[in-house]
Amino acid sequence: MKAQEDYLLNISKSLKDKLADKTLLIISAFSGLLLILIAGVMLYESQYFLTSESLIDTIFGTVWDFEKEIYGLRPYIIGSLLVTGIALLIGGIPSVFCAIYLSEYASSSLRKILKPFVDLLASIPSVVFGLWGMVVLVPFVRRQVGPFFGASTSGQSLLSGGVVLGIMITPIIISISDEVLQSVPEKYKKASLALGSTHWQAIKNNIKNVALPGIIGGVILGFGRAIGETIAMSMISGSATGAPSSIWDTFSTLTTLINNKIGYVAAEPKSVSALALAGFILLTIVLITNILGRIIVNKTTRRMKK
Predict the structure, then answer these.
(1) pLDDT tens digits for 2-11?
(2) Is residue 67 exposed (0-12), middle (13-18) or buried (19+ Cβ within 10 Å)?
């Protein structure tokens, strides 16, 4: 009787485990299917536009005027790439050094204090960053930075947008770089120190020989986060219609194009379809960068744990 009860109990546990496994699989698959569905809808909605317009001409076109049914995405693609590049220059390098300090120099008690502030920075709404940029940074660039370099600017510029984006992407780069550095086996650092290296030289060797791909992956993920930012960029960009020629110029991005135009063209099927194409291009860029960055980070951490 006891053996039969144990047998039935084991069967019950096995069924519960299988049910939990299948349920979690379905939930995980749903997340992936939802992403595919969103991309599919964007592509489907853009078909109406692509039946009458050339994709190449649209990507390289320089003018967007829905009243004349002219749809050129080049200024917005250039603006997206330039402001994101500036953000990576401004925010990427300090973020990596911050991660090095948290991982290698900060005491455990100090790390426990500083790490939550990094996480808190990631939770600040983008509209707050945009408002801070408009209230503080834009006037400062217009009155101080621009004149110092002999440039005339409204303050709503690539430089201002890059600074705000650079601050916004620091949490993700810091967190991922810190994760990668924490995964470096202690034996590597001890081996460098045993050969006479200083603490900094040991860290530098570990980064160069082991952790660098993972840190680059974190920067790539930061790129994906930055290029998809909407609200802050809509507030700071100045909503230019042409491509910027310097860091002092106003600009527009793919996100600001969609955000600023959709309300005006909601009743125009072709214009909505053109914006759907812009959304699909943006989504493709974000997906590629995020997948690439995550693959690099995962491969690096797995290699170091072996």
Answers:
(1) 555 554 455 5
(2) exposed
Q: Is 238 helix (H, G, I), strand (E, B) or coil?
A: strand
Burial of 246 (0-12, 13-18, 19+ CB in 10 A): exposed
The structure tokens 């009787």 sit at: 1
Residue 152's domain spans which residues?
Answer: 55-305
A 10 A CB-CB count for 175 gives 19
Q: Is residue 245 part of a domain?
A: yes
* DSSP class per residue in 160-199: HHHHHHHHHHHHHHHHHHHHHHHHS-HHHHHHHHHTT--H
The reply to whether 165 falls in a domain is yes
Helices 158-183 and 212-227 cross at an angle (nearest 10°) of 140
Residue 67 lies in a domain: yes
Residue 139 lies in a domain: yes
Domain containing 62 — which CATH number?
1.10.3720.10
CB 156 within 8 A of CB 82: no
Q: What is the pLDDT of residues 104-152, one digit of tens each?
A: 888 888 888 888 888 888 889 999 999 999 999 999 999 999 999 998 9
63 DSSP 8-state letter: -
